[in-house]
């Protein structure tokens, strides 16, 4: 593909518009999801009631109950709300886009009517036609004159089918006094017609529809009819941040289009300051207006190529939009009971997340390659991608989990990984020469994003993953070396895709270059022999697990030394570490084999950890030398080596009964947060159940206070069925005991009451005793419930 055949690099305007749409969709799903949860059942929450009925309490401990019957009951309960929730969620999105489309179609008509626009005078027809030809427009817009505005300037507007340019009345005088400025201003509006009129007015329409359909009704419902205790402060600040992000995306689109139009004017006029004077905007207009600051516009006009450089904040906003929109889409699908284990929904949604993230990374790489690789061109936007993914998790309104040190560490690791992935994609983008090259990079980016960035979900639950899956294993191990090897082994739970993604890091650049790194391959061969020798020497160092851990560390040490000594570039370093890791895996298998069996789980799957540690070793020790020792070659050999590594990660020697198991058995007891479970029980009908019992009991004592035997008998007869009504026990053992004893005592008292006041039997004193005992236990239950709720909400 020749230089002139390359597709045009996407502008930042398109990226910002996509972010605006994603954020608007995310916020719509959040708000209409609230409507669906509240207005169908105003007294209790659907998901809380279903948890109570099924006995499945989903608390912040993130413990997964192994009882499938509870999960089936929970899903069956939630399925009853499927139709109404689907109508709310789908209806909100349909309404948003319908109103946006209506505003988009009617805005040109309203603008023409409001400004009383008229056709331009005859004297401007030919000059404007010449400027249309100069701008290279296949179809001229309709030129109109705003006779009420005496300032110089104009505005381009319209739809994708019909576009207009309205010139202010002051342009008539400007043409006679400053013809070059007149020409530049008209060309600026024609640049909008050529590039972004459709996106601009779609942006404005989306924002106005968002305000009308989503934001305004929600603000109104904050006062009524939403329950006062339903909308929390956390939900409010999450919503406020989302609205600010939507508004910021709107402003970013409108400002970016101005800079791109200025760049075209500079190219057409050959003048780096075509407008002569840019009037300074006021402070509020600088913050909230459609036009960027004059200094920013002048900087772009002096260096139009700077628009190609991917920006940190635009990339951050796009990553935030993708992450927030994904979480809210998952929240909506979870409420529809579709997003759950066992129906491939996890896989589908992870792919749905990986594709836009890969597109974002590739857009950064594409624009950065067109701008020209310089310091920070790819690294800063890559950092923005990682921070956007991490912050998007925090800004998800449904995420109520606290920010823990483990979560912070995981977020930093995700940001660092995203930075490296974006730098890799940017480097590969500089090597793209044909369309199939671009497809190779794009598909590889999806795999890499899915695997190396797709563990963002674990960031949210990092504390629970460490507490439940990692710490119990490390606590049973002796020695720092063993723990250092077992940790990445446990974290790499998707070993095949991880190995495939790590192989793509060096395979894609070599395929795009069509080169054979002779020096790197030679270093890998020599290093493999050294690694095999080190593995053989350490074959009996302690227990089987300890010995294998030392062998893995020895291979990684060889990778570090050999890569540093070879002084090859980054791609060569990754390949060298890969080859050493393959040889090390084979050597570990040979030393641990006993017939066809191995004696530790780590020895069975050393390639689950060696590619990970080898990549880290290559990044630390490699890339400091010259790009040397390369020769032209077909990529078949590189594909074969990568495929061999993936095959090694799939296959493993068979183990016998004595294989050392790393993971401890699942705990038999339920690891739920009892206070949170009690709070859910109360919202899911428990508090309503308690108040119903109290009210029924009060009817009995109302008859006692009135000294009316008939009323007492009626109250006791009505109390019995209320007490016998089936409802799950509170999920706290002590509260459940006091609750059960209270109900049992009241039932005994009601039975004695009927004997005395309905049947005329003797009063042996048990009625009063049982009633007092029941009331005491209910008071104790009520106090314990409120205390647990206070602890859960604190």
Topology (elements, then pairings):
Blueprint: H1 12-39, H2 46-54, H3 68-79, H4 82-115, E1 118-119, H5 125-135, E2 142-146, E3 154-158, E4 163-168, H6 170-177, H7 179-195, H8 197-221, H9 233-269, H10 283-288, H11 294-302, H12 312-335, H13 345-371, H14 379-394, H15 405-429, H16 435-453, H17 456-460, H18 462-475, H19 480-491, H20 495-513, E5 515-517, H21 518-537, H22 544-566, H23 570-592, E6 597-598, H24 601-604, H25 610-621, E7 630-632, H26 636-650, E8 654-655, H27 674-705, H28 709-724, H29 733-757, H30 766-793
Parallel strand pairs: 2-4, 6-8
Antiparallel strand pairs: 1-2, 3-4, 5-7
Helix pairs in contact: 1-4, 1-8, 1-9, 1-12, 2-3, 2-27, 4-8, 5-7, 6-7, 7-9, 8-9, 9-11, 12-13, 12-14, 13-15, 13-16, 14-15, 15-16, 16-20, 19-22, 20-23, 20-26, 21-22, 21-23, 22-23, 22-25, 23-25, 23-26, 27-28, 27-30, 28-29, 29-30
